[in-house]
Amino acid sequence: MDTKKTKRETKKNDFGIDVEEMMVAGVHLGHRISRLHPKMAENILGVRNTVHIIDLQKTAQQLTEALKFISGVLEKKGELLLVGTKIPLKSLVRKIAQDCHLPYVTERWLGGTFTNFKIIAERIKYFKDLAKKQKEGELEKYTKKERMEIDKELEDLGQKFGGIKDIEKIPQAVFICDINKDKIALREARAKKVKVVAIVDTNVDPNLVDYPIAANDDAISSVKYILEKVAQVVKKAKKK
To answer: Which of 28, 101, 109, 215 lies most in the core, judged by the most C-beta atoms within 10 Å?
Structure first.
């Protein structure tokens, strides 16, 4: 028997969360001590080179609770929206969302996406109808200049609504990669009582989030580790 492998496997919980793997991914690296939000203090293990070190044992517990919640939402046919507009994270968030068939926002969060959903839904319908007409060749009757203008409009609408074009109502939950960068998304979710799961770095207030996950929200490797756990849960829940 491979005792080394057995010992390592025992470190993982039901979701395969491993503190050592999180450390390798840089999940534990917070911001400089001068940027600490007081309410994050309980998630801090110590300081290294003026940078706060996040307690990964607590992160593992928080991530476990978040994954249980997400699984429950999806098993009840609810919807989870992924939000990550920070430039280094856009392609990662988009890929994870598309692989899991989840709605997503990787460009600027449109004000009113939740709080004025009726108007957003109307714009989405317009976008989908226009895209359908283009696909079916119904736009050929227009002049070349007019078609170019329509193409430009479709590109703009695609950037704004492409990731949420299939949502028919406000999702039951939202996952936000950085609540500081996407504070409007957070504010609208709270206003509409949408449950929020989010990565919370050492510079933000975790009490603003229903399911906070204390972790580095800047390193791609850190966010990737967490989002891949989310993806595993989403795919499993959707199969059920």
So the answer is: 215
pLDDT tens for 161-176 read 999 999 999 999 999 9
> Which of 229, 182, 235, 236 lies closest to 18, judged by CA?
229
> What is the reported pLDDT for 6?
40
* Separation between Cα atoms, residue 212 and residue 101, nearest integer Å: 23
Q: Are 210 and 137 in contact, with CB atoms under 8 Å apart?
A: no
Cβ count within 10 A of residue 19: 16
The helix-helix angle for 144-161 and 117-135 (nearest 10°) equals 140
Beta-bridge partners for 197: 175, 211
Count CB-CB contacts under 10 A for residue 75.
13
CB 188 within 8 A of CB 171: no
Residue 222 · residue 68 · CB < 8 Å:
no
Multiple choice CATH, 3-114+170-239, 3.30.420.40, 3.40.50.12780, 3.30.470.20, 3.40.50.10490: 3.40.50.10490
Q: H or E element: which one contains 30?
A: strand 29-32
The span from the CA of 183 to the CA of 230, in Å, is 21
